[in-house]
From TrEMBL:
Annotated family: Belongs to the MscS (TC 1.A.23) family.
Organism of origin: Paenibacillus allorhizoplanae
Domain of life: Bacteria
Residue ranges annotated for the Mechanosensitive ion channel MscS domain, each copy included: 124-187
Principal subcellular localization: membrane
Transmembrane residue ranges: 24-46, 75-97, 103-125
Keyword flag Protease: no
All copies of domain Mechanosensitive ion channel transmembrane helices 2/3, residue ranges: 81-122
Full protein name: Small-conductance mechanosensitive channel
SUPFAM superfamilies found in the cross-reference section: Mechanosensitive channel protein MscS (YggB), C-terminal domain, Mechanosensitive channel protein MscS (YggB), transmembrane region, Sm-like ribonucleoproteins
Keywords: Cell membrane, Membrane, Transmembrane, Transmembrane helix
InterPro entries: LSM_dom_sf, MS_channel_1st, MS_channel_C, MscS_beta-dom_sf, MscS_channel_2nd, MscS_channel_C_sf, MscS_channel_TM-2, YbiO_bact
Length: 284
């Protein structure tokens, strides 16, 4: 008799002696059912998580703040993988527990390792978590003009760990997400351009108001950045030698500087043409 034949017969004998017992068969049956149930539940959890992520992405796309499509897809994949890995790891550990493997030493070792990594990478973990909240809450997006502490500029990149903003003079500031405590976003809603027109103290105020209404209406018609007809509010301040008449214009986000400069130039030329003496024109 060959070795292979003898081994096969011994194996069959062991199976008949042990596995063929009714209580063992019942135990194997219920263990199999539990393993299948754990697997199915894990798949269902991952499916639900995927649908939730998809709904969140759709909701973000409909919000006033827009984020880059590729970035939202990347974050969706990252979150999917994180959830899938976590659920699968828990499922594998539960299955191993069902087959009789002692998970105590394994969990203890994993806990010690995780604790060591946590102490060594607290700043990194903080940056990553803050980055996720920035993206999912749409606090700001690529292309927005924001201010973080003393740094103001256009957002060039929102990373999981850092955010890059470029100032109008060309400097690029790289800010760890964990250091972002407060953000001012200048690109979310329409802005207001304010222009204070100084005219001579002895000028005809009523005529100046009429002329200002005419010129701001013309500027509105040919300036796309102005979303509503500018308003001439009236005399803002009376000085010793001049009067200040305030003009405001609602414009597209972060366009108030551009609109103020246009209004300043057009108001100056228009009032000069019609003989209204100006002391100076101020705007912001």
């Amino acid at each position: 008799m060959s070795f292979e034949t003898q081994y096969f017969e011994n194996l069959m004998h062991w199976i008949r002696e042990h596995i063929s017992k009714p209580e063992i068969i019942a135990s194997i049956f219920w263990i199999t059912i539990k393993i299948v149930l754990i697997y199915v539940i894990a798949r269902v959890i991952i499916k639900i998580a995927d649908k939730t992520i998809a709904h969140m992405v759709i909701a973000r796309e409909k919000s006033p703040l827009k984020i880059d499509r590729r970035r939202s897809n990347t974050i969706s994949i990252l979150v999917h993988n994180l959830i899938a890995y976590t659920v699968n790891l828990v499922a594998i550990m539960l299955i191993l527990g069902q087959v009789g493997l002692n998970l105590g030493p394994l969990l203890a070792g994993a806990g010690v390792l995780g604790l060591a990594i946590g102490f060594g990478a607290q700043s990194l973990v903080k940056d990553v978590i803050t980055g996720f909240f920035i993206i999912f809450e749409d606090q700001f997006g690529v292309g927005d003009v924001i201010q973080i502490d003393q740094f103001k500029g256009t957002v060039e990149e929102i990373g999981i760990r850092v955010t890059r903003i470029k100032s109008w003079t060309g400097e690029v500031h790289i800010i760890p997400n964990g250091n972002i405590k407060q953000v001012t976003n200048f690109s979310t809603y329409n802005s207001i351009a304010i222009v204070d027109v100084s005219i001579a103290y002895d000028a005809d105020i009523d005529r100046a108001m009429v002329l200002l209404n005419e010129v701001v209406a013309e500027v509105h018609e040919r300036t796309e950045s102005i979303v509503k007809a500018p308003q001439v509010l009236g005399v803002q301040m009376i000085g010793n030698t001049d009067l200040k008449i305030r003009v405001i214009a609602e414009c597209k986000p972060n366009k108030q500087g551009e609109v103020s400069r246009i209004l300043n130039a057009e108001i100056k030329k228009y009032l000069d043409t019609h003989g209204i003496k100006q002391e100076k024109v101020e705007g912001n």
